[in-house]
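Batch manifest, entry 17 of 40.
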Amino acid sequence: MEFKIIEKKWKKTWEVNNLFQNIEIDQQKKKYYILDMFPYPSGQGLHVGHPKGYIATDIFSRFIRMRGYNVLHPMGWDAFGLPAENYAIKTGIHPAIITKDNIQRYKEQINALALSYDWSKEIDTTDPAYYRWTQWIFLKLFEKGLAYIAETPINWCPSCKTGLANEEVEQGRCARCQTETTRKNMKQWMLKITAYAESLLEDLDLVDWPEPIKLMQRNWIGKSEGAEIKFLFEGESNKGISVFTTRIDTIFGVTALVVAPEHPLVSEHENKIKNYSEVKKYIEAATKKSELERIELNKEKTGVKLEGIFVINPLTEEKIQVWVGDYVIASYGGGAVMVVPAHDQRDFDFAERYQIPIKEVVQNQNKKVERGTGNELLEAFEQDGVLINSGGYSGLSSASARKKLAQELETKKMGGPKIHYRFRDWVFSRQRYWGEPFPLVFCEHCREKILSGDYKDGKFSQGEITNPGWVALPEESLPLELPETDTYQPTGTGESPLANIQEWVITKCPKCGGPGKRETNTMPNWAGSSWYYLRYADPKNNHELISQEKEKYWQPVDLYVGGAEHAVLHLLYARFWHKFLYDLGVVHSKEPFMKLKNQGMILGDNGAKMSKSLGNVVNPDDIIAQYSCDIFRTYEMFMGPFEGSSAWNTASINGVYRFLTKVSDLISQFGAAATSGPSKFEQARHSIIKKVTEDISDFKFNTVVSSLMEYTTKLEKGEASQDDLKTLVLLLAPFAPHLAEELWHIMNPRLAERDSVFMENWPVYDAKMAQSDEVEIVVQINGKFRASLKLTRNMGQAEVEKIALTDDKVKKFIDGKNVRKVIFVQNKIINLVV
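Output type: structure tokens
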């Protein structure tokens, strides 16, 4: 059978009949929302690794539809961002043109894969009708005070010439272009994702996600329970340095504080720091390092003492020296850490290097701490223990002391219990052109009004009060469209190219009508992808982000499929926005994605990641042109477990080609003539239905294909009934849709062309009939596995024991020995005790 001719025929028929298109609410059916992480349409198009997830969700969608669900399975484009803009700069072609051409190319490739997307729901994040609602969500965050402007040290990519969120830096390099990043102080729009830290942690228990992804999010959020301590400056009654610690039980052993190079203490005390020139030189060197380099655990701690600056320990009233160290980060724990050399190994090494005193205050109650001559410690004791040299707290356990010490600090108003999170607020502005404009105007008149306190007329939102001078555009003026320009090259000065378009920048304040200037930074590419799953359900709605009726019916996403690389980027950001929209009443669920599946990579034939530079990229267009879409789809699923990685091997496709040819020949020759009624394959048919149903549900697509191959070989032996053959076609349909459609019409010649195999019901199995006549019984000797036997179901102990004793693998372990006892579990195990 000519697979490519069949494809052309049925593809045209499906298009004419709008199969899978214009899916709407159907209260008579249970919904199922299946979603792919939508692609960024790059100029290179798809290689064979990209469709793995798309084919899997298509198979699952077809399977679920045939089981009676109303399925939403859409596709769209995550099209704003740096790749298009950088390519535009390189080629001189405007990013809007490049994006449009790339989308067309991607869509052609996706359609060639016979993916059953509902294209009536298509979205594009660069469409003003779409990003109007991205801007709307930002305005709501702004109004509630969750969007704020701040001068903060950020990761700066000198190649992309833009700021990056911490999540966009890998090993100290830009995740997109791999250029080494630097630290730069800039005014940035920030989103207060930390306000949702607790629910982002707790609600991971509500979702069915791979445990490693949950763990990555938990570690990234990094919840720590401890205490905050205020160390006052020497001679000051209320000014000092706040430090967060999880080991307040070691406070009597603090012999120094170390502050971040960015800590305001340094600049504020310039005149008091006797070695300021040395300190300044150290700080300048620190700004050239990425945050990751600075906090690297294996890195040796370095620092410079702030000569002339001392703080007072609030519990011992001892004078403590202060240092600046680049391993301390300004945005975590107050930007300062206490040095307890006796109970932290890195502090111990730091103290030995710089001759800082070491004071032991916690002792191992079970084992004597190793000391050198003169009672000096040889290494830090980092575990909990019993307090010593700690005043009235000596003799207490670390756990008991922590509670009491935190309470005492709270009583003295010098600190108290505190929870800190490792992750920081989201850096939300980019100094680039190709992104969503911020719907904000800066007005000097309104700024003065806020600063003077003359804002209590209810006309200003929380965000406008928090960010004096920044005024929100009214919702009815959205979208604020990105202006057209031929000058989209980054300035490199920290300003977006939009700053050069004065006719767009200069405007009127929407609040007072006075002169104003638009924000010229743009939103990051993560903005449009943080809520797109909602818009698919209601993409043409001009009045609201999503109607309550459609949100209530379709949300949340039942199954989300994509790469694990988005664990602490897209997935974390989308969960944050969803929780905010939940608080607004826009959505009714606490989480956006209930079940998550991550596909493994398809590697080049040399086992390396596919890339042009390695010359191992395989284009799916070439494979489909040579073999067919159905063969390509089935082979991708047959290569190995869905979550695992596997190397592409074009030669191996021939096995799938032979299998589908065998199915085609079997149905073409015997399908119409096959008899109805019972057959000798009854048990095999129910068994394969059970196997395929369970394995598709578990995304075990490779074992489905293997099982269908075995079933086909059985049916080839002859005397298969129509039910046997129809079952084969129905089970194969999600994998090879064109071939299955053709074979279904051969077996059902009275069907109209508009009728489809995908309108049929999924086969149902009888659990008793699905049981195999053969079972695998494990043979143990003295509890250790020695062999497995394939035997007839429900055999008795005497029969199984007789067969086991004659098995060659078993005999060598029992020759010359007596069987004293037999433990037997029917159809499962026999244990011979010798």
